[in-house]
Amino acid sequence: MGLLGQLHNPLSEQDLPASLESHPDLRILVEKLEMGRPSERRRALAVVASRSGLRTSVACRILKQSRSSYACSVRLFEEGGAGQLFAPRINPHRKFDSEQVKQALFSILHQPPANFGINRTTWKMADLVRAMHEKGQPACEDVIRAIVKGAGYRWRKARIVLTSNDPDFSQKLQRIRSILADLRAGEAFFSIDEFGPFAVKAQPGRMLIGPGEQHFVAQWQQSKGSIIVTAAIELSSNQITHFYSLKKNTEEMIRMLEALVAEYRDRTKLYLSWDAASWHVSKRLFEHIDAHNATIGNNGPQIDTAPLPARAQFLNVIESVFSGLARAIIHNSNYGSIEEAKAAIDRYFCERNAHFKGNPRRAGGKLWGKEREPAEFSPSSNCKDPRFG
Q1: 34, 144, 195, 364: least buried by Cβ within 10 Å?
Q2: Over the stretch 300-351, which tens digit does the pLDDT of each residue have?
Q3: Is 82 helix (H, G, I), strand (E, B) or coil?
Q4: Residue 344 in contact with residue 335, Cβ under 8 Å?
Q5: Which residues have C-beta within 8 Å of that of residue 379, sequence separation ≥ 6?
Q6: Where are the alpha helices (H) located in the chain, listed in sequence order?
Q7: CA separation for the pair 367, 321 (Å, rounded)
């Protein structure tokens, strides 16, 4: 009791119980008792009290600590010594680590403020706090800032990349989600878009170089040609269908439609999802789809469309694959010809398709390590990396 009565006085090694004399962390414990912060001193005193043989109730009363704090300090020291005892305490229930809060925040950021009755064209912090509260995931401004910063976005970027101004955003998003929720075995859902055009020449990018070295790419180069990749990803199987186009137009969309019908002839229905580019919503394209559905009968799948909201590339799953393609084989490249570049792209998609045939799953980002987001549809996804085409 005399030892614990000197709570505000420095303690030396001689004052500690004999059970701590041979402990490898004795010096650290004494240092914290003498010069540690109040919280560290309280933890060290809890260990001293426990090793002195005092009953928990008596020690807690003298040290003015709760039973849970006292027991936690003793347990941490016994399990991991001073390192674990004095390690920074991280609250496991921090809101900015909650996946539910993150998903709610990004699903709000992807919509215009007008969808929440706010007469503004861009989000401000007070409006986000209110919208989060209305969505059932209340969060303060500090939590919202931490989540946005952790996702790699600044507010200047958020106004450009993260927000769709489509007044029908919620309805279009809900239709896509309802289709995916009820997708049957005989149906397939495709995200479709184009990558490029990009020039076949020496490309810059991040690379590992030795000390004293410097990688240069000439500003003015003779291009060997340009490439446009038109591709579709089937979400349930994670398989890519692609070809090369000279232009982005309705003819290429009809070509993709026919390619998918031929490849997935055993399906009963194909859903095609794309952004609001003019050639994706042209009158001629929809006339072709209607004509196909009227004549195909039982000899192939029916076609339906599920367009994305306007300016919502962040919801287009194929953009995630394109970002991975750019980082893997376009950046830092210097292909000698268009054919060589196309061969590398073909191999990338072939290896990717083979991988997911052998390892079926809808998400691919973590396995491949190149794609920005898992290849799955989610309103909180940010599939299109603003840094990569």
Answers
A1: 34
A2: 899 999 888 776 666 778 888 888 888 888 888 888 899 999 999 999 999 9
A3: helix
A4: yes
A5: 103, 106, 107, 110, 173, 177, 315
A6: 26-35, 38-51, 56-63, 67-85, 99-109, 125-134, 141-150, 155-161, 169-181, 250-263, 283-296, 317-325, 338-358, 365-368
A7: 13
